[in-house]
Amino acid sequence: MYYSHYVDMSRLKRETLATVSPWVQYGLREAQYTSVHHAMTEIAAIAYLIGRGYDPRVAHQIVESWEVSETFYRM
Description:
2 strands; 68% helix; elongated
């Protein structure tokens, strides 16, 4: 895989893990009350929205708004 020589991989790793770590911890707690599938779906959706530029808290609120009785229903 090609990486631009302008990318500091160590910094990228630190920033990435620092961003997702709180959400991984949240997902682990969530899985205790729902299911692993549900928790992983929720965290993946939050991470996707963060990657799209949403503030992490807003991303969390959006994904939570998609739940009905701790279940994601397809539209």
